[in-house]
């Protein structure tokens, strides 16, 4: 299934995409896509719903992040070799982990608002995954059993705050709206192999990033297993898995976001995003 949430910010309703690609409102059956609805048993039951009998979501309706009740927003850095090379950093021997604020989560097409005085806003297309069941000390060969689904993400960054403000990367990653997710969550029955997803990001129509998740240094199963060794992952938690080469910070000279720029992201079955910068 492709699960989504539609409506005004803070008042989103649950929905899903039917076999014809139409968005359907499921709020008569489900209160919201909260963590308890992401358990394998619940998702299996949802697949029996005849989506064609559900109301259509009106065209042009805003989409929110595809899941509600996120408790942890975890990010992986430098997870593509060419991205590490363009940043002038060594290939990591273990996943680099940082956290993004929950308040950075936004809908896939919401505007990205740069902080006052920002001169180094940047883009990062990424594969995200959402936890479906509690994870602690999970072996790698069992890791994907704990994933509810996958989504497209943009790990928007402010590089000066990230690298020059004497602190962790989260400083440059956690501004409001710096974590667009969606448009939908693709459940694992529709995407059994997360290492076969194409990723493309354009700024004002020009391709900046183009890669595939097969190029990750640490694949999804390894990331989940690794994280679960030192933190308990909870249902609904979001993990984004790093970005390929082509970020603005890596260009020579660097190119950063400015007012009016438009970022468009696409990732095959994970759908598309569009954000305008202001």
What would you note in describing this structure?
With 278 residues, this protein is mostly beta strands. It has a single domain, classed as Fumarylacetoacetase-like, C-terminal domain (Fumarylacetoacetate hydrolase, domain 2, Alpha-Beta Complex). 9% of the residues lie in helices and 27% in strands. Strands 1, 2, 3, 4, 5, 6, 9, 10, 13 and 16 form a 10-stranded mixed β-sheet that branches. A 4-stranded antiparallel β-sheet has the order 15-14-17-18, with no helix packed on it. Strands 7-12 form a two-stranded parallel ribbon. The mean pLDDT is 96.
Topology:
Layout: E1 2-6, E2 13-17, E3 23-25, H1 40-46, E4 63-64, E5 73-77, H2 81-86, E6 96-99, E7 105-106, E8 121-122, E9 125-131, E10 147-154, E11 157-158, H3 159-163, E12 179-180, E13 185-187, E14 198-203, E15 206-212, H4 220-227, E16 238-240, E17 262-266, E18 272-276
Please describe the structure with a list of short key phrases separated by commas or semicolons:
single chain, about 280 residues, mainly beta, Fumarylacetoacetate hydrolase, domain 2, 10-stranded mixed beta sheet, about 25% strand, globular
Give a brief rundown of this model.
With 278 residues, this protein is mainly beta. The protein is 9% helix and 27% strand. It has one domain: Fumarylacetoacetate hydrolase, domain 2 (Alpha-Beta Complex).
